Amino acid sequence: NVTVMNRDTNKVSTTFKDVAGLDEAKTEVIEFVYYLKNPERYKEIGAKIPKGALLYGPPGTGKTLLAKATAGESGVPFLTMSGSDFMEMFVGVGPSRVRDLFAQARKLAPCIIFIDEIDAIGRARGRGGLIGGNDERENTLNQLLVEMDGFSPNSGVVVFGGTNRADILDNALLRPGRFDRQILIDAPDIRGRHDIFLVHLRPLKVSDPPGIEKVAQRLAALTPGFVGADIANVCNEGALVAARESVNKIELRHFESAIDRVIGGLEKRNMVMS
Ligand code: ATP
After folding, report:
1. N or C: at which end does the chain have fewer Cβ atoms within 10 angstroms?
2. What is the DSSP letter of 127?
3. Ligand 1: residues within 6 Å at CB?
């Protein structure tokens, strides 16, 4: 079902420079970039590339961003679908969406498939129900396993899965020949937050002095516990506050009040959850 598929079949413009920090994770995915740029060379020499990798870690840390940037670096199409998109009320829709997704990918290869929230279909069998019922989910998971087993390592299709809950995944998904590699995408430390702030401050009109380097340092120190998605949010909120005041440069205080707003939002979210 192509309508639910978010396809970036043209060139993806996101690259590693849009992804701050995550150096180890980038080193791990670089092998896929070499491969996707030149699958023929791997085939000729007889080297087998892993079929996929699981990107796991807290929400908003850049899993989707890194998967997309890997496609951008490689110059290949990016096909993405969320695990929950496979779960429908009608029996048989999940497995057929999996089939469609992989059929598309084979046509577009070399390319990257990214299945976000893979735990929605890939949680260990025999665990709690979801919409569509357990059988439907199991059938969808089985179809995914069939598809992953069915393509050869040199088909030019690389599959990334994203999850916040690697601990509940069915072991079958993690076997060799499926998601061979598991890559942790963790919340950033102060250095990482600084680097992420720089990425998101660069396109903005930030007052100088103090200049974006100083602003990034200060904001990183003020935001323990923030992930990349929160930081992107702070930068945009700061710009909105400044625009409303009709000043033409964004000052540190605008970002500071944006942090208060984001923290307020996070607290509300936690209250709802607990
Ligand atoms: P989820 O688990 O909720 O799907 P995710 O880990 O896939 O989250 P993304 O969707 O990749 O998170 O991140 C959301 C946004 O946050 C990105 O589009 C980007 O703007 C920003 N962001 C997150 N991590 C980073 C990072 N390391 N560098 C730069 N920006 C980041």
Report:
1. C
2. S
3. 19-22, 59-65, 116, 162, 164, 185, 196, 199, 228-229, 232
